[in-house]
Recover the amino acids of this structure.
């Protein structure tokens, strides 16, 4: 997995969080790349690669997906990474789309679109 791809994912996460989150986010939400735990960096790179591959195999037709569909894809990929790295995650870490806060859904859609535009 590429460190650069993980950084792009993380930068998109922080940008989306800054845009959509009301209030003061938890420090871990906006921690710099160097302070992000190894499992999160690895997961960010893995999800970036999943989105990139999805865009590629669809020959760019992901542009026809709704923002919700794009965000759902990122959310599911991230949840799989949570299960991969955390044996018994908190329910909020693996919440289904409808149970996620709006800021997180919007941020996930932003992440997809950022990766899509780079592909």
């Amino acid at each position: 997995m590429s460190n650069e791809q993980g950084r792009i994912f993380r930068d998109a996460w922080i940008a989306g969080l800054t845009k959509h989150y009301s209030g003061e986010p938890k420090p871990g939400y906006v921690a710099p790349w160097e302070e992000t735990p190894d499992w999160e960096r690895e997961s960010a790179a893995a999800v970036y690669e999943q989105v990139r591959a999805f865009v590629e195999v669809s020959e760019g037709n992901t542009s026809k997906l709704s923002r919700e569909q794009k965000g759902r894809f990122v959310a599911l990929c991230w949840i799989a990474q949570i299960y991969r790295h955390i044996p018994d995650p908190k329910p909020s870490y693996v919440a289904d789309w409808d149970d996620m806060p709006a800021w997180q859904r919007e941020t996930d859609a932003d992440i997809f679109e950022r990766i899509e535009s780079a592909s």
User: Anything to note?
Assistant: The mean pLDDT is 95. The chain is about 60% helix and 0% strand.
